Known about the structure:
The chain is of the alpha/beta class.
Amino acid sequence: MCGIIGYVGNRNALPILIEGLKRLEYRGYDSAGVAVLNSGKIILQKSAGRISALEHVISEFGPDKLNARAGIAHTRWATHGAPNDINAHPHASGDGSIAVVHNGIIENYSALRTYLKQKGVSFTSDTDTETIAHLIALHYKDNLEAAVRAALQDVQGTYGIVAVCAKEPGTLVAARNGSPLIIGVGRDEYVIASDAAAILEHTSQVIYMEDNEIARITADGFRTTTLDAVPVTKDVEEVEWTLDQIELGGHEYFMEKEIFEQPKVLETCLRGRLDLRDHCIHLGGIVDCARELVRAQRVVLTGCGTAWHAALVGEYLLEDLARIPAETDYASEFRYRNPIIDAGTVVIVVSQSGETSDTLAALQEAKQRGAMVLGVVNVVGSSIARETDHGIYLHVGPETGVASTKAFTGQVTVLTLLTLYLARRRHMSQRSMNNYVTALGRIPGQIDAILEQNASVRTIAERYMDQNNWLYLGRGYNYPVALEGALKLKEISYIHAEGLPAAEMKHGPIALIHEGMPVVFIATKGTQYGKIISNVEEVRSRGGHVIAVATEGDRDIAELAEHVIYVPDTLEPLQPLLTTIPLQLLAFHAAVARGCNVDKPRNLAKSVTVE
Ligand code: AGP
């Protein structure tokens, strides 16, 4: 949820920490702070708001004036305590000799506060994290690593922390339990951070910390042990993403960049997997478990937010094309609802970041109950990727915009590949397979054609940007797309929107329809086209303004809808990959027109690593 970073080496730490924070800002932007070690003291500065506000605060120091070789920094998504200067991280011990940055939630912080107050500690903030700084100070003798280890014995909850101590100027101590931490291995320097985005400009050599691990890091090297002081040998791995992939690349917003790079990245996602010559699918990541998958009695797909919407498309695909009983569960519900998992049940966890706390816990719950767990994940080396038995990466590159776009089409593409792989091994004819493989191969080019309508979609969005209630309606495969379209609009433009199966409208929501209300219909040609046209009529007759996503060449719908956005024709099960694109653009342009911060919408963060 928050973004944390630490640096130790021979270069000036402050500019490295500030630049690193900017790369992590999509993880939380309520406040920011930095603490560097200089002349035996910890210099700590923090402020509410964006990194730019912190830069203003520290400008009096200026990177060149403060020659620190080690430090830590933090950008916050508030959980405990309002987003203000006091609650901003880093948090320090009473005498200021220990400072800590933290990502996660300390569940027993209230008990720890009481205990520490009895020890004479006074608190300055409302945060859970401050307890860690005081606990470390309480245990500190002359060894920061030992003090952190002792302090964490009393801590319950999730954390990724990095601590510094004025008495050990060249040392960082990091610990992980439930929140991601990666150590970037440079030449005589280390950058430790919540994700690779803040490390890539320094090195592509990384070490992934696991739960219950502590690392002591100096410029000369690092040592990792478990919380119980058992040494752990770590492998250095290569991050496959490049620096330019995490740059804006000439776009004003990452969301815009990520919408427009979908044709290219879906080609990468399909490369080596979609065999257009032999009309078959290759999925190296599931070869070892293919037999079990083909024989699966039941598939449960789970995830959160946009990933849940992709999972719902996956459910429709698996039942319709592979004829495997499938269901979709919100990860936050699945993990607590005592789900029935029996032999033959396969659980598919879907996640862009691979760090979403509810999805990670759902995965662990499924494994505990004996299910085989398959991951559909974007971030290589993420916790979910490392904990699943088998997996398929999206290969759509880093996604920085908080509103997920290319990851959604990447997730749906992977679930389509998986479905076709299984369907062909269960009952699908080669002839039918040929049709699907050919159609799937056309998708990237067809998305390109849709993106050419960007300007006309912007006009529609600007026309309705002041309307505070929108409805999104779809049937069959396009019902999850309606949900996804509504979510995109909600999360970046703050307009209230609801996605529904179109037929459900008559059972209540139709009461919302008023003169001029924008109602988005995904009304492409297919088995339920006639039905959805009746739903369009129902909305029109109550004054709703219909914005229709329709199949190229459909002239009839133009008679019924105020606005039509055409998408190329494709096989019905593949339509979500096309019909989603106009909805991404609609939300993007409505948010820009309303002056919203599209990449960092209020109250949100890119990966939700707390419950
Ligand atoms: C989508 O735009 C949101 N950012 C959010 O709903 C997201 O999909 C959800 O938090 C799941 O994230 P994940 O795919 O990284 O697990």
